[in-house]
Design brief:
alpha+beta; 176 residues; globular; Aminopeptidase; EC 2.3.1.82; eight-stranded mixed beta sheet; transferase
């Protein structure tokens, strides 16, 4: 395992995981906040988005109690993203994640996942901050992130195209 915390395991994405991603990213409940219900993924789309060799993200599958339940990626923010968000010369990582198995929602696993990855990024990658930009309407996710110590920094107006409409997002951060 790449990262482990009790029943939670995070491992690097493998070729066989494309079937899981296609399953999760064609579920309207998952797509409501991740990618959009008007944008379901098939295997071809999964291959293009998640298996592009030039990506800088570290892409991982989340397992809980031996079951594959979700996805997380983390990445070092580039200078352009730092400038957009108003940061300077710090080591800043971003993350994106979802629990694709709906039966595992509302059980504290998202909180465990986010807190575990934040600890990993700070201790192993020497991050000064960890940032995310959830849609402002995704209150369940924002509450999870706040439980993990993230604070709202600023609203990012019309930041993400989702289901044909630009959505406001929050820039949230965890500071060391």
């Amino acid at each position: 395992m790449f990262i482990q915390n009790g029943k939670l395991n995070v491992r690097k994405l493998e070729e066989k995981d494309k079937y899981l991603l296609a399953k999760w990213l064609s579920d309207p409940l998952v797509l409501e906040f991740y990618e959009g219900r008007d944008h379901p993924f098939d295997l071809d789309q999964v291959n293009k988005v998640f298996y592009a060799p030039e990506d800088d993200e570290v892409k991982c599958i989340v397992e809980y109690d031996g079951n594959e339940i979700g996805y997380i990626q983390f990445y070092l923010l580039n200078n352009e993203a730092k400038k957009e968000y108003g940061y300077l010369n710090e080591i800043i990582y971003g993350t994106d994640q979802f629990i694709g198995e709906v039966a595992y929602w509302n059980k504290g696993i998202g909180t465990l996942l986010v807190s575990t990855i934040v600890t990993f990024l700070i201790e192993q990658k020497k991050a000064d901050r960890v940032v995310m930009d959830p849609q402002s309407r995704n209150t369940r996710a924002i509450k999870c992130y706040e439980k993990c110590g993230f604070k709202k920094v600023k609203i990012l107006p019309n930041h993400e195209l989702h289901e044909g409409k630009y959505q406001d997002c929050w820039l949230i951060e965890y500071r060391v």
